[in-house]
Design a protein that fits this description.
Blueprint (H helix, E strand, L loop, with lengths): L1 H22 L26 E5 L10 E2 L2 E2 L3 H12 L5 E7 L4 E7 L6 E12 L2 E10 L8 H17 L25
Parallel strand pairs: 1-2
Antiparallel strand pairs: 1-7, 3-7, 4-5, 5-6, 6-7
């Protein structure tokens, strides 16, 4: 009985190590065909476990929450964004598309290094107003335990702390921890 238990535990450990090694390989830090997307062109329903935040009127999906609007040009918002994500563990920027103000990241889970793909687009609304669209999704699996939602909401909260949005975030986010931040309202 004890030998069978030890063998089972050892088998699970070896399997876990094999998954970690496989997911940690360099190929997991490259985008697969179809993973480069334009967030404004996404349509419902979104595939795979994921979470989307977009500025008002930018995305055409019912699942998207509304991201805050900031009283600054998109270049300055990008600088704040870079500051926010610079401390993220296991995050690697894999695409920089300056023409479309799009950046794509891959972030690996700490234990098994499962990759999540995060696409970020900066949206210039007016010369002195910008916002951000973020789509975080799992590459593998059908359920993410809310990880993508938590990531997007946390990143928006951190960005709001440093960049001070001009417009209060919508009621649809009530209950999430980042709605509790104090926002200045300077534009209706």
């Amino acid at each position: 009985m004890l030998t069978a238990l030890i063998a089972a535990v050892l088998g699970v450990a070896v399997f876990g190590l094999a998954v970690r090694i496989y997911m940690g390989r360099e190929a997991e830090n490259r985008l697969a065909p179809g993973e480069t997307i334009n967030l404004a062109e996404l349509r419902s329903p979104l595939s795979k476990p994921g979470f989307l935040a977009c500025p008002p009127g930018y995305c055409q999906t019912a699942e998207a929450i509304t991201s805050p609007v900031f009283p600054l040009p998109w270049e300055r918002l990008r600088d704040y964004w870079t500051e926010v994500v610079s401390g993220e563990k296991h995050l690697e920027q894999v695409v920089t598309d300056s023409e479309h103000r799009r950046f794509v990241y891959i972030q690996h889970s700490p234990t098994f290094r499962f990759p999540d793909v995060i696409t970020v687009e900066f949206v210039q609304l007016k010369p002195d107003r910008s916002s951000i669209a973020i789509y975080s999704r799992s590459r593998y699996g059908e359920y993410d335990f809310g990880k993508n939602r938590k990531r997007v909401v946390r990143w928006l909260a951190l960005l709001a702390k440093v960049a001070q949005p001009a417009i209060r975030c919508p009621e649809r986010l009530a209950g999430s921890f980042w709605i509790q931040l104090t926002f200045s309202r300077t534009d209706p």
